[in-house]
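Exercise 7. Predict the joint structure of the components listed below.
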Amino acid sequence: MIQTAAMICLGIGILFNTLGVIGILRFPDVYTRLHAETKMTTFGTIFLALGVIIYAGWMLSGTNDSQYLTLAIHTAIAVIALAFTNATGSHAIARAAHRSGQLPDPSVVDRLAEVKSRD
Amino acid sequence: MIRLLATAIAAFVAYLFLTAGSGTIILWSESELIIGCILAIIVGIASYRIFCRTGSVRMANPIRLILLPVYAIIPLFIEMARANIDVAIRVITGNVKPGIVRVNTGMKTDLGMLLLANSITLTPGTLSVEIDDATKQLYVHLINVPDELRDKKVVEARELFSFFNIPGWIRRIAE
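Solution:
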């Protein structure tokens, strides 16, 4: 039962990671690719980690072996670190791309380029 | 002094999380606790100028520290799930209308700006590109700009999310 729940979490995670990879190939410019690449893979990895935590919790309650507690806590810390670094990193890439003149193409509105051209 | 103490306690708690399950004093062994204390003091002396830059310790308030994980697990996660399914459909259909809009945040502190910009970036479909420090406004790249947001000069941060008042939560946590 709990193993099935862990497997479902792993399946959802792999599905979102796969869609993120397909998005890199399908989207037109650097910003839309960043949406697929960084954010969807973060969400997929959260579900992969959730599967590991559920499995480790089940093994911990069965065997009372402290290595599974360590596994669960370290996976949770990895998810927190991933969420922070992924948000910061994708913001840095997008900012660097806009500063080096890589404008969103196609775009329906670009308030940042309007402000920059006015200065 | 209070900055050094706050940094040392934060480092010690992080060390306790990393070594949980090593012994019998609740969850930790004696040697890990002693080494943790020594390392926490060294880390505190080395990094308190960066960790508590302004000298304000309002984040040590336990209500804020409890609200932060609650915020991350309930409102932020539900918004992330909603937006992920939306972007997943756009990956399959290829139907995108990207654009950069100007967002008024209404935050007063740097920590509030950091949390809001990271929340916007972690939600798929919205990506903070640039920050205007003087007016506390963000330039946000949207993967699909709705028609009513396209014609506005400045958008409120509340309009980027669909279910929860994310800026209100962040104001309660960080300000």
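Discussion. The mean pLDDT of chain A is 87.
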